[in-house]
Amino acid sequence: MTIYVALLYSIVLGPGRRVVMSDLRDMAVDLGLANPRTLVATGNLVFEAEGKPVATLERELEAAFAQKFGKHVDIIVRDAAAWLKLVAANPFPEESEREPDQVGVRVMREPVTPDVIERLLPYVAADERLTSVDGDIWIYFSRSAGSSRLLGALTPKRAGGIGTSRNWNTVRRLGDMAS
């Protein structure tokens, strides 16, 4: 069995409606995924499966989610080895130690190209940092992430495709769950 990490783009189903994590775990069980567990209530799922390609798992999870919850949500899946590689590749280790909620990564379905980073640079404040590592977009927000122009610029068009963001605290804790 292989351990996987799945990241849901959004768990908001509409005004006042959010996905309940026990329902998400039930959905995973219904798909035949083993040992599903969630991390807080933010759309992070860790599970085990036997010999399925990541793209197949993404399609199956997205279809099951739409059927169960009535809304399409993009879901990014990485196997444990890829997730642990992402954790180890953090380009901002000092900032992560000092301000873990100010470091984030946009985990991409397809790796970004250098032109995506160039396209995002005008949105980076003087005291922020942006880079790409192994096709994912890493950001250090030196202020509240919610007040950053960069966060609003991370649309699928500007960011080079489907992805979803997590802060360092979540990335690290998912790494612990996947190892």
List the helices and strands and how they pair.
Blueprint: E1 2-8, E2 12-14, E3 17-18, H1 21-30, E4 34-38, E5 44-49, H2 54-69, E6 75-79, H3 80-88, H4 93-98, E7 103-108, H5 114-120, E8 129-133, E9 136-140, H6 149-153, E10 163-167, H7 168-178
Antiparallel strand pairs: 1-5, 1-6, 2-3, 4-5, 7-9, 7-10, 8-9
Write a structural description:
- The protein is α+β, with helices and mostly antiparallel strands and 179 residues long.
- The protein has seven helices and ten strands.
- It has a four-stranded antiparallel β-sheet, sandwiched between helices. Strands 8-9-7-10 form a four-stranded antiparallel β-sheet.
- Strand 2 and strand 3 form a beta hairpin.
- The chain is globular, with a radius of gyration of 16 Å.
- The protein starts with a strand and ends with a helix.
- The mean pLDDT is 92.
